[in-house]
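Lab notebook, design round three. We kept the backbone fixed and only want residue identities now. Task for the bench partner: fill in a sequence for the structure below.
Input structure tokens:
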């Protein structure tokens, strides 16, 4: 078997040199852990667990990253080393990025009033991987989050920096050709054991909603257990397809042949009471409004990908 080109090995060695270097240093949460943010989170997630309310309330564990987010003002604690790593990947043709997954570990509950500090490290940079999106490198950062100086949890966040379908590995300093509109495909959905049934339904042109067999609560997106009663048994019901726009955004940037902005993305409330994010189609993006009636359709984007979308209904 032939070995890898020497210059490619050298490039990977340059990337590996960033492992262990800080990605964010001496970060401080913008706000202490507080009840309003906990309430907003629980309302958005539909989580009615009584542990998150009252005088002895704790924050939902999955809010761990929320207390470290910088908002629209940027992230001043981000280090030059992390910026250098991303720039090196950009300049080598790996200009596209997608978040792939995160992992969290919890060591102690967070309570209203806790002051948050954190720091991040570049934990790993993978060897070059070939994916359906294109060839590139997985970059994993680990953030240690503390409350009052005590480790409360760890958040690992992984991104893929890749060159869409056109990466040539032999020379990392060769200019990368940008894909044409016909070459660029939409990202593939991540299918796992928790949501495989949903995508099987989409393939049959059905939009399936989970229903808890313990208390009858409908839920979407799909989850392994019920937020209301904790039951792990469930069945499904097919959505009627009728709904209204609960909220929406119009996407103008970044330009991408796979999505062709500007376009409208809606948070659609189905008549069954659950909400789903998808494109609002067949109406001008500038006419989409909160409360607009929509109707479910299934749209094929390429030989593999079928997605549920919602056609705006105008009078």
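Proposed sequence:
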């Amino acid at each position: 078997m032939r070995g890898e080109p020497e210059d490619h090995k050298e490039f990977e060695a340059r990337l590996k040199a960033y492992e262990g270097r800080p990605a964010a240093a001496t970060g401080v949460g913008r706000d202490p852990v507080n009840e309003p943010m906990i309430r907003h989170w629980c309302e958005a997630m539909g989580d009615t667990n009584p542990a998150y309310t009252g005088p002895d309330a704790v924050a939902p564990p999955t809010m761990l990253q929320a207390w470290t987010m910088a908002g629209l003002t940027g992230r001043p604690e981000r280090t030059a080393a992390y910026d250098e790593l991303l720039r090196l990947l950009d300049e080598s043709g790996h200009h596209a990025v997608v978040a792939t997954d995160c992992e969290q570990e919890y060591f102690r509950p967070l309570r209203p009033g806790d002051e948050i500090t954190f720091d991040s490290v570049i934990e790993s940079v993978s060897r070059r991987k070939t994916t359906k999106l294109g060839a590139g490198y997985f970059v994993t950062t680990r953030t240690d989050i503390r409350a009052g100086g005590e480790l409360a949890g760890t958040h690992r966040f992984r991104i893929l920096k890749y060159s869409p379908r056109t990466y040539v590995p032999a020379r990392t300093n060769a200019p990368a050709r940008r894909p044409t509109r016909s070459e660029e495909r939409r990202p593939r959905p991540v299918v796992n054991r928790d949501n495989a049934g949903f995508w099987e339904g989409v393939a049959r042109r059905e939009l399936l909603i989970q229903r808890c067999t313990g208390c009858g609560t409908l839920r979407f997106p799909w989850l392994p257990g019920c937020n209301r009663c904790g039951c792990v048994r469930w069945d499904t019901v097919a959505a009627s397809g009728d709904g209204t726009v609960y909220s929406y955004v119009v996407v103008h940037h970044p330009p991408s042949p796979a999505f062709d902005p500007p376009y409208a993305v809606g948070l659609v409330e189905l008549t069954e009471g659950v909400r789903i994010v998808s494109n609002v189609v067949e109406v001008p993006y500038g006419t989409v409004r909160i409360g607009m009636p929509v109707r479910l359709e299934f749209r094929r984007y390429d030989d593999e990908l079928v997605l549920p979308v919602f056609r705006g209904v105008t009078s």
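Keep this in mind before ordering anything: The chain has three domains: 6-163, 192-238, 240-315.
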